[in-house]
Automatic annotation (TrEMBL):
Bilayer-spanning residue ranges: 39-59, 65-85, 106-128
UniProt keyword Nucleotidyltransferase present: no
Membrane topology of the entry: Multi-pass membrane protein
Xref: NCBIfam families: Na_Pi_symport
GO terms of molecular function: sodium:phosphate symporter activity
One annotated Gene Ontology cellular component of this protein: plasma membrane
Key words of the record: Cell membrane, Membrane, Transmembrane, Transmembrane helix
Name of the protein in question: Sodium dependent phosphate transporter
């Protein structure tokens, strides 16, 4: 609900999620309450691509709409698979807590994680495909 609406309004899941960070860090918002907002933000961010795809015309309009719908279905599917089941819902939160604790203890680990996740893994996939 809230995450979807907020993200549709600002057209950025990053803004919605970034607003949660200081609230959670200050103890104003529990992680368990921030998590559904984050999931909603991921669904809400698909609206921008859908609007752009629906405005497209011509030969490639179908391809654009297909990609936008894949984006929507991927995010909705993830929410349907994870959120209704409490044990599944706890997994991302536990992993995030573990990673946050590890990053607080070792900034080098946090840097390695970011470099690995956002640079090395994409390059590896690009090379393999």
């Amino acid at each position: 609900g809230v995450g979807i609406v907020a993200t549709v309004m600002v057209q950025s899941s990053s803004i919605t999620t970034s607003l949660l960070v200081p609230l959670a860090g200050a103890g104003v918002l529990k992680l368990e309450h921030a998590f559904p907002v984050t999931l909603g933000a991921n669904v809400g961010t698909t609206v921008t691509a859908l609007l752009a795809a629906l405005a497209a015309t011509g030969v490639n309009a179908t391809a654009g709409l297909t990609i936008a719908l894949v984006h929507l279905l991927f995010n909705v599917s993830a929410m349907i698979v994870i959120y209704p089941f409490e044990p599944a819902r706890r997994i991302p939160i536990r992993l995030a807590r573990w990673l946050a604790d590890a990053a607080v203890k070792s900034r080098a680990l946090a840097i390695f994680y970011v470099i690995g996740l956002f640079y090395l893994i994409p390059v590896l996939f690009a090379v393999l495909t």
